Amino acid sequence: MGVETIRKPADTRVAVKPAFDLALRMGDNALILAQRNAAWCGHAPALEEDIALANVALDLIGQAKLWLGYAGELEGEGRSADDLAFLRDGREFRNVLLVETPNGDFGQTTMRQWLYDSWHHFMLEGLKASSDERIVEIAEKSAKEVAYHLERSTDLVIRLGDGTDESHKRMQDALDYLWPFARELDVADDADRAIAAAGIGPDLASVAEKALAYRSEALSQATLTAPTDAVPRKGGKAGVHSEAFGFMLAEMQVLQRTHPGVKW
């Protein structure tokens, strides 16, 4: 069975199990998307959306805490969820590039959320059948929140896509830009294949099929067209991130990096 190696702070290497890979990836996706959404607090175009984005961010932070907490237990090196969130370097993060893309305008933020939600929902449904009981528990809890996230983001994509000429253009531009990033969610690497082979998580191809079917129906209602020749933008799951991610991570980690071990 293939396993991935991750560089630890002490510059040693440790083979990680499929369950650790999965927990780390799911936790990092949730954490980084939460950080991006939280930046809208006080800046959204309407009070209702300001509150909604903050609530979605809080849900994702709660999920990140569960996933990263479990990853720390599996690693067995005494690192907590906080340690994994605030004391890792950029190359150690395993989130997909989609969730770290800059917020852009409200249309781009909405489209990014929807593309992730429409994968996240079906991924969690698959994880409910995991051979790992803890993963099943986290997936079942998270799925209740993500069902709301998907309902909300789908409604916005349809309303804005099939809205005014301006809102339609912004949503189409956002879709054209983000679609290649979303495809990284569907491309399996060695770790993904090991996760599926061990029964820890579903085969990504089956998740992708369901997500694409859902997206096709919603995009039809939104009068939006997905690119047909988009090449996947990938690298995040291997620790290769964007320049924008580095700036975001520095902002997110500054307190713990400046005052190690600080507590409120």
Automatic annotation (TrEMBL):
GO cellular component: cytosol
InterPro entries named in the record: Aromatic_CoA_ox/epox, Ferritin-like, Ferritin-like_SF, PaaA_PaaC, PaaC
Classification via Pfam families: PaaA_PaaC (PF05138)
GO aspect biological process, one term: phenylacetate catabolic process
Taxonomy, superkingdom: Bacteria
Gene3D superfamilies noted in UniProt: 1.20.1260.10
Name of protein: Phenylacetate-CoA oxygenase subunit PaaC
